[in-house]
Amino acid sequence: MKTGIINKAKLVLIVLIIWPSIVFPQDKIVDQIVAVVGGNIILKSDIERMAIEQQAQGITTEGDMKCEILENFLVDKLLVAEAELDTLIEVTPSQVNQQMDRQMAMYTAYLGSEKAVEEYFKKPIMDIKADMRDGIRNQLLSQQMREKITKDVTVTPSEVRAYYRSLNENEIPVIPTQYEYAQITIQPQIDLEEDNRIKAKLREIKKKIEDGSSFATMAVLYSEDGSAKDGGVIGYMGRAELDPAYAAAAFNLKDDKISNVVRSVFGYHIIQLVDKKGEKVNTRHILIKPKVSVEAREKAYNALDSLANMIRRNELKFEEAAAVFSSDKNSKNNAGLVINPETMSSRFAAEDLDPDVSKVITKMHINEISAPFQTIDRESQQMVYKIVKLTRKLDSHRADLQNDYQKLSEDFLRKKKEQVFNEWVKTQQLKNYIRIADTYANCNFNFTNWIK
What we know:
Blueprint: H1 2-17, E1 21-24, E2 28-37, E3 40-43, H2 44-56, H3 65-83, H4 93-111, H5 114-121, H6 125-150, H7 157-166, E4 174-175, E5 178-186, H8 192-210, H9 215-222, E6 233-237, H10 244-252, E7 262-264, E8 267-277, E9 280-288, H11 294-312, H12 318-325, E10 348-349, H13 355-361, E11 373-376, E12 383-394, E13 397-398, H14 401-431, E14 434-436
Antiparallel strand pairs: 1-2, 2-3, 2-14, 4-13, 5-10, 5-12, 6-9, 7-8, 8-9, 11-12
Helix pairs in contact: 2-3, 3-6, 4-6, 7-14
């Protein structure tokens, strides 16, 4: 083990001797090393690629973007090195692919189309993704390591109060306008014929796989889930992370057997076990979502419209209607009140609202009942109809302890975590060999000990 470390250190020294560039025969410059952290190098091409990616997402900065990117890479190298020594930290191919898809979606949204993305990067989408893969894996590793470093940091009410009292007036955060709302949701019913059609299709696909066809290929061809491109693999998950019906089937599977057709909130699946680790399973699946008929949509819309009119005429209370008729399990027993999943409070800033809800709720008066509107349920990703009631609106204001304790608590907790993390980075800087090219010597880094 020690010999390997010594050899790696020698290799780094050899690399440094040929600084600032790696050359092949005929003196063709391939790339330039701009930094070394322990046994890891950062290339000029890494910096250039990240700068292009950030510009593709519309990210700007008041400082020197390349200096900021370099420092982020330096911190990430420290985090990744520590994460790779930690047996409890793992990043699966499925996690990498999901993050990659999110990033590609941001590029496409900003640049307008996949073709525009290819033109911007001057290469096909598949090549762009290939270039991104290692970087995204390291990004996910560093995120997990960062979370582990700060996971035990907490704040007490007395600390929050002391923090608030220590702020100057212009340091007290401004809370944007916030909305509280209740909802009644109805999901259109699927016709029996449509149910039977999908079940029969999945049974047919299952038979083909059992007769020798590849599950992964069938997933690519037929699955309507984002995991289709990965052969249907969704990665390791525990029972609580899965739909109950899916989990029940997945945890009962043995070897490479394929489940019978399973119905979840997302649609219909057939499932195959890939692997099991402790209390988590890695499965692949094929998902087909039922199609809603025009008649079913009209029925759901009219039912909600009638409910809204009854509530407006005081023939029925909103909270009673929500408890009896709403299909949203998270709000129906809470008087229809919707909880912000990011903060676990009932308050939403306009940008935190679902776009379809935001268009309606931000134009309403207190206690007004909306007309029914169509949207996509955030949890099941199924089409639903909603009516909403604006229950409270808090205008923009400076935070205070009485109304905004949670926001102040979150801010102070973030500051404490940042302080703990910064101390960890400073310690790691002292532990690791670090060298930065002279071209970056004048960067205004946040951490001062990169250049020794």
